[in-house]
Write a structure and sequence with these properties.
- Helices cover 51% and strands 9% of the residues.
- The protein is mainly alpha-helical.
- The chain has three domains: 72 residues, Dna Ligase, domain 1 (2-Layer Sandwich); 82 residues, no CATH class; 137 residues, no CATH class.
- The strands form three sheets. A two-stranded antiparallel ribbon has the order 1-2. A two-stranded antiparallel ribbon has the order 3-4. A two-stranded antiparallel sheet has the order 5-6.
Length: 371
């Protein structure tokens, strides 16, 4: 009785309750293991599938709309990949990075702007970027050596969307052009001849500033100011000499014509350059100016006035500037072009010799339609 009474029903209930808890814990543990295992399995399969299939990528050559991407100087593959992904060109940066890493051509991508489609495969996007013809080229303005400022402004209007009024206003605002101090506030001679890209949103004033900046860069590299001082001239004077040389000489004779200028200035002797007369009356005329033109009243009449004209008469290029800084060592004081088609020019030390050369030119003009 005591055994049943003491160890009976109450004690039995406690034993069975403990056994139930243990079973439940086992079931819960098994369920957790199954869930975790299933999750791990699914995740592992996804990871394996992702590793095998690579980063997310579009297929094909892309669709509208067109997207403009700019590759900056110094951009590496990862930078380009992020730009393409952010713009919706490729599906993921990793896809483009992988494609670039597997293609040696990726190293040839140039800085600049490119037009691509949206939703392109990474490989298709790379094909566009490695093709130099895919670069968006800005419109350009080309200014040859020897043009006067008035002619340069006209060229800009002809070759761009800038209006005549816009270009004229930009030129008139000389204080904003960044001219060197020795230019005396006059842009004539300081708009450097070259080819200029018209970047998006560039204004006429921006273009003229770039042209002046190019002049300053070129002349600084030539050491214009120091070398002009060694020659005994102001930098403005040397630029003026270069403009005369540009107007009067062909490429083979630039330094010899420069020597004539300096020899006459040193004597002193009037320059008597017809190019300065034509500048004064805004014409492009014959090699030998007529008597009426030689008698005009103008600070640019170098037949009447001693020394250099007050400003350059055109925009000289680098070779003419070099010639003005490095004149040939001669005693020539005269020259004349005797064949306008070949550019043959004869130089002389004396007036008598020069007159004989002038006769050669006149004889040439009797049978040539170039005169």
């Amino acid at each position: 009785m005591s055994d049943l009474g003491i160890g009976g029903l109450p004690g039995g209930h406690r034993t069975r309750h403990k056994r139930g808890r243990g079973c439940l814990a086992v079931v819960v543990a098994m369920a957790v293991i199954v869930v975790v295992g299933a999750f791990a399995y699914v995740t592992g399969v996804d990871l394996i599938r992702g590793a095998l299939s690579g980063p997310e990528d579009y297929s094909g050559d892309g669709t509208e709309p067109v997207v403009t991407i700019e590759v900056d100087k110094g951009d590496i593959g990862a930078d380009i990949a992020e730009k393409l992904s952010a713009a919706g060109v490729v599906k993921s940066a990793d896809a483009f990075t992988d494609a670039a890493n597997q293609d040696d051509r990726a190293g040839s991508i140039q800085p600049g702007r490119y037009r691509l489609l949206s939703k392109m495969s990474a490989e298709s996007a790379l094909d566009v970027l490695v093709d130099p013809d895919s670069l968006i080229t800005d419109p350009t303005v080309t200014i040859p050596e020897g043009l006067r400022a008035k002619e340069i402004l006209a060229r800009i209007v002809q070759q761009s969307d800038f209006t005549k009024a816009q270009v004229a206003a930009a030129y008139a605002d000389t204080a904003s052009l960044g001219l060197p101090d020795y230019a005396g506030g006059d842009p004539e001679g300081y708009l450097f001849p070259s080819t200029y890209e018209l970047a998006p949103k560039m204004t006429a004033a921006d273009l003229l500033k770039v042209m002046v900046a190019r002049f300053k860069t070129q002349t600084e590299s030539l050491g214009l100011e120091d070398r002009a001082d060694k020659l005994g001239y102001d930098p403005h004077d040397v630029v003026t000499v270069a403009s005369l040389v540009q107007a009067e000489a062909g490429p083979a004779d630039l330094r010899k014509v420069a020597s004539v200028v300096y020899n006459r200035l040193a004597k002193p002797q009037r320059l008597e350059f017809d190019s300065t007369l034509h500048y004064a009356v805004d014409s492009r005329g014959e090699v030998l100016a007529g008597k009426e033109l030689r008698e005009i009243e103008s600070p640019y009449n170098t037949y009447e006035r001693m020394g250099l004209p007050p400003t350059p008469i055109d925009s000289p290029g680098e070779e003419a500037l070099v010639a003005a800084l490095e004149p040939a060592k001669t005693r020539f004081r005269y020259f004349v072009t005797v064949n306008l088609k070949t550019g043959e020019t004869r130089f002389a030390r004396t007036y008598a010799e020069h007159q004989r050369n002038v006769e050669v030119y006149r004889e040439y003009c009797k049978t040539s339609d170039a005169c």
